[in-house]
Each structure stands twice: as C-alpha cells, then as structure tokens.
Here is the input.
Amino acid sequence: MALTRRRTLLAGAALGGVALLSGCAGGPRPEEEDAEHSAAAERLREQAARDSTALLARYDATLAAHPALAPHLRPLRAEVALHAEAFRSDRATPAPSHGAATGPARRAATPAVPAEERAARTALADAERTLADTRTAALAAAPPELARLLASVAAAGAAHAWLLTGPGV
Here is the structure.
C-alpha cells in the first residue's frame, strides 16, 4: 500500500513538473490569451477557489477538533490557503463576490471531523485526494496557463494526501 502511495506521489510531482516546464517555452499565443480569459476559464478558476476554500474549512475544523495535530496540519493548511489565493489572483479582474466567497457567510456548516486523530487525518487525506482527482479531470477543459496551475495544485494535493497518511504521521 505504501508503495502505491509513493508512486502516486511521484506521478503527481512529475505531472506538476512537466506542466510547469512546458510553460517556460514562451509567452501565450493570442488565441491562448483569449481562452485564459473566457467565461469557461473564469468558471473553472472560481470553482477551484471555492474548492480550496472548502478544503481550508476542513483543515480549520480538524485543527479545532484536534489541536495536537497542529504541527503536522498547519504547513499543509498554509499551502491550501496559497492555492485558494492563486486561483483568485490569477483573474485579470476580481469578481464582485470575491470577499463574500471566503467569508463565513458563504461557508457551509463546519465540516464534521472524526473524533479519532488518525481518522481525522484520513478524512483530510481523502478530501485532498478527491480534490486532486477533480482538478486533474478539469485539465482537459482548461486553457494552458490555468491547466498548469490546476496540475501543480493537483500534484500538491496528492502530496498532501500522502503526507497525511504516510509513515511518521
């Protein structure tokens, strides 16, 4: 089982690396630039930002329920916060609902957290894995720059999932 997780982690890291390296060849072509600012790309960005914000809520709920996990969870939570901001700041102009999307009024009820620490880490890992899979599936519909960001964040999510359930945790 650990070997499978390692392979998934390595594959995710390789995917993210390839996506980042492929962006170094030069600037976007005009048709790519138009695609980056299309309504479909904007919807993908907004959904990705909402997904990261929801994942942040899961981290916050887990930290509140299990303060002893803070040394392990805070660095991962900080990265998820950066991911949410990257999807928001990637937009040319912020959407009017930007502030409301991250505020408590827009968040659903606090996510349920298992009472046992190991189960709580596993639940977070499952959420990270599911979101990484969702982002990987969205790559086909994303314009190049957004696809690179999605791939990179998906790879980070796969790494987080492994770190949450891997050895030494």
User: Anything to note?
Assistant: Residues 39-65 form the longest helix (27 residues). Confidence is low (pLDDT under 50) at residues 18-25, 92-106. Residues 83 and 153 are 7 Å apart (CA to CA). The helical segments are 2-22, 30-36, 39-65, 70-89, 98-102, 117-138, 144-165.
